[in-house]
């Protein structure tokens, strides 16, 4: 891989991927694209930009003109597409931005990438496109799409557009669908970073409904390793599920009590709040395809991953206290009345 684009590079997974790609391909030219929404943070990637071969480009993927100008100017081989509106709660509040960025933005990128002869397009998606599971079973790549939230519906739409580009135009595009990630640089609106930082501030941890919803957690570095493998060895037009180790399938209340235990904070910080609308009960993916075909398995178990994550938030208090005092706080107080 020589000329690599990462969209959404100033966000959580994008920045983690940028570090890994820069290590793995020490001579590659790397273009970090992001429009810097509330979730994009230049601090996440600032150290990388000291390296001459890595550049940042403030680009809104929803703007087809700007997107095609970029691809006409730069000869790109591999494109990892992570830019997205990514938070379910925000999509319930207002879905339009999710359609603009996740659906139209993805199509703009597909058009520009295809016309400028990008070699391979890796579209990073989510297991949430499959909908919700009951107490048993797992999502397979062939499971019908049945998204619940506007976020998941917009991601399902983008997945279909990517697969259509592969089928219609023979464009070398692939889709990955991963379970819930956690780790450094995750914006503190998602469960794990919100609860770690709230606990550190002795604020309430707002658990939705009965807290028995299940998520299948994967440490972000494991996800990024899988993405590089898919880029190198995946088959055009295929979908690859990515997920955590089996024992990382955990109920929200279990994750919450683990966070409190690791931080030595009292259980009394847990506050049961109103449930999320149409809250998906359980996600869990079958990873046998990526494991058998490409040889990937997750390496980091949940206790180790949580320790690494908690330590990162402990060591980077400036990073999250700044975020938690800005637009973020206003948004949540206004729309959710959350105790943040
Ligand atoms: P994030 O919200 O932390 O980051 C998204 C980034 O995209 C931000 O930097 C934001 O500024 C940028 N962005 C948003 N709209 C843009 C636009 N119009 N143009 C350019 N940039 C724009 O999200 P994340 O958690 O890092 O997720 C990255 C990708 O991975 C998303 O596509 C998401 O659907 C997918 N995914 C996330 C998870 C998870 O658990 N976080 C799991 C599976 C898949
Ligand atoms: P989240 O991190 O938003 O990811 P997703 O909705 O994509 O799975 O939420 C993870 C789980 O935690 C989900 O079941 C909703 C729940 N949750 C809470 O109980 N309280 C919260 O404040 C948040 C943000 C999430």
Q: What does this entry look like structurally?
A:
The chain has 340 residues and is of the alpha/beta class. Helix content is 42%, strand content 16%. Helix 1 (12-24) packs across helix 7, helix 2 (64-73) runs parallel beside helix 4 (96-115) and helix 6 (191-200) runs parallel beside helix 8 (252-263). The model has no long low-confidence stretch (mean pLDDT 96). Bound molecules: nicotinamide-adenine-dinucleotide and thymidine-5'-diphosphate. The site of thymidine-5'-diphosphate has 13 residues, from helix 6 and strand 8.
Bound ligands, each once:
nicotinamide-adenine-dinucleotide, thymidine-5'-diphosphate
Major sheet: order of its strands?
3-2-1-4-5-6-11
Main pleated-sheet profile: 7 strands, parallel
Order of helices and strands: EHEEHEHHEHEEHEEEHEEHEHHHH
Please state the average pLDDT score. Answer: 96
What percent strand? 15-25%
Low-confidence stretches: none
Short description, anyone?
The protein has 340 residues and is an alpha/beta fold.
Strand and helix map with partners:
Layout: E1 3-7, H1 12-24, E2 29-34, E3 54-58, H2 64-73, E4 78-81, H3 88-93, H4 96-115, E5 120-126, H5 150-169, E6 173-178, E7 181-182, H6 191-200, E8 205-208, E9 214-216, E10 218-219, H7 220-233, E11 239-242, E12 249-251, H8 252-263, E13 270-273, H9 288-294, H10 302-315, H11 317-323, H12 327-335
Parallel strand pairs: 1-2, 1-4, 2-3, 4-5, 5-6, 6-11, 7-10, 8-13
Antiparallel strand pairs: 9-12
Helix pairs in contact: 1-7, 2-4, 4-5, 6-8, 6-10
Nicotinamide-adenine-dinucleotide is lined by residues 8, 10-14, 34-37, 39-40, 60-62, 82-86, 101, 105, 124-126, 155, 178, 180-181, 187.
């Amino acid at each position: 891989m020589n000329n690599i684009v990462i969209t959404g590079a100033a966000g959580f997974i994008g920045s983690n991927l940028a570090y890994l790609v820069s290590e793995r391909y020490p001579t590659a030219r790397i273009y970090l694209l992001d429009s810097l929404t509330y979730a994009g943070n230049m601090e996440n990637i600032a150290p990388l930009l000291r390296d001459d071969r890595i550049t940042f480009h403030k680009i809104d993927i929803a703007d087809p003109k700007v997107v095609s100008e970029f691809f006409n100017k730069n000869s790109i081989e591999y494109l990892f597409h992570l830019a997205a509106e990514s938070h379910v709660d925000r999509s319930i509040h207002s879905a339009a931005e999710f359609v603009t960025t996740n659906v139209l933005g993805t199509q703009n990128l597909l058009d520009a990438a295809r016309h400028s002869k990008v070699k391979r397009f890796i579209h990073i998606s989510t297991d949430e496109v499959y909908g919700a599971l009951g107490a048993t079973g797992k999502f397979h790549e062939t499971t019908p799409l049945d998204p619940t939230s506007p976020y998941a519906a917009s991601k399902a739409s983008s997945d279909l557009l990517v697969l259509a580009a592969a089928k219609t135009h023979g464009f070398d595009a692939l889709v990955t669908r991963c379970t819930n990630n956690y780790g450094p640089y995750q914006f503190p609106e998602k469960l794990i970073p919100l609860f770690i930082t709230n606990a550190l501030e002795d604020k309430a941890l707002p658990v939705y409904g009965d807290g028995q919803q299940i998520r299948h957690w994967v440490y972000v570095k494991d996800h990024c390793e899988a993405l590089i493998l898919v880029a190198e060895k995946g088959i055009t037009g295929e979908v690859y599920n990515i997920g955590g180790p089996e024992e990382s399938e955990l109920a929200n209340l279990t994750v919450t009590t683990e966070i409190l235990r690791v931080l030595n904070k009292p259980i009394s910080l847990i506050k049961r709040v109103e449930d999320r609308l149409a809250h998906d009960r359980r996600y869990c993916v079958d990873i046998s395809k990526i494991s058998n075909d490409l040889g990937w398995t997750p390496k980091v178990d949940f206790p180790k991953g949580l320790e690494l994550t908690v330590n990162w938030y402990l060591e980077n208090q400036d990073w999250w206290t700044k975020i938690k005092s800005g637009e973020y706080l206003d948004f949540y107080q206004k729309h959710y009345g959350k105790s943040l």
